[in-house]
Amino acid sequence: MTSPSLRSSFPHSSSSLSSSPSSSSSFTLFRHLPPELRLQIYRHACHPRVASLTYLPAPQDTFYCPTRPPALLHVCRESRAEGLRIYVKCPLPNLHHTTTTTTTKPDDGREGQGDDVNGGERGRDERYFYFHPHHDTLYLPRPGPAADPFGLGYADWARELAAAVAATFAGVVRRLAVDYVPAEVRRPWEAYGKICLIGGCPRLEEAYLVVSGAGAGACAAGERGGAEREVELVDPGDGDGEIAEIMERVRESFRVELGDGIAGLLGAPGKDGERSGRSGEVGLELIPKAKMPSPSWAGRRLVCAS
């Protein structure tokens, strides 16, 4: 039996415990945590994202990014400061305008924000997106009919983009996704355009081929093209045999363009199925993915009482 003195020391303990689960859904004592713990929480709040760059032909001749900035940049001052240390600020490529903005790496080894090479003020029309080198995927979809009425697909812009990216943020891209284009609509130059995009990222670790759509409102890759809203890339569902055939056809189209040079890009089969390429290292392999609309951010936002 609890003594009166002990019971009087905690007069509201039982009521507070019973009401705590339903009293509030936010952690209001976050600001009282040690700074080191808060920073760790911010870093763990960096969710994988798909940064889509959709080509807009002439007269715009530029790129559109429908991916919203990371939620970490909009919570509070402290989270934004940490987010700017984690995410790389990448300029949107302008194919016929030499950009003076590059990405740099701070002394602490983490990627930093864009710096003006010439040391002057940035132009007011500068457009950019945020990219996490270790979590995010750069997705370059095939332009849809509205933006590409002649169905040119991965045309000159793909080769020019590869050169522009190589001079700006190619060093931070470790995951790249491109669309599979069915044979009935594919143009002869599209395989080479995708090869240029993949080969233009020297630090690439994974290359994805978006072979289908998944979820409500999705369409097969290459039918409509483009990315007008945020998307996620997931493992494709049924139809493993069909997907395997698609991947083999794509590899064959790459082989036609590169010949034996395909081993340097995607790797050549070796012992136990391992692929070697790129200076003797394990070569890249195209990984099939399905595209689906990204769910609401409602469950992913951080709420910080400041």
TrEMBL record:
Which InterPro entries does this one have?
2EXR
Annotated region Disordered: where?
Answer: 1-25, 97-122
Q: Tell me which residues make up the 2EXR domain.
A: 27-138
Compositional bias, Basic and acidic residues, is annotated for 105-122
Q: Which Pfam families match?
A: 2EXR
Task: Please identify the protein, giving its name as recorded.
Answer: 2EXR domain-containing protein
Source species: Thermothelomyces thermophilus (strain ATCC 42464 / BCRC 31852 / DSM 1799)
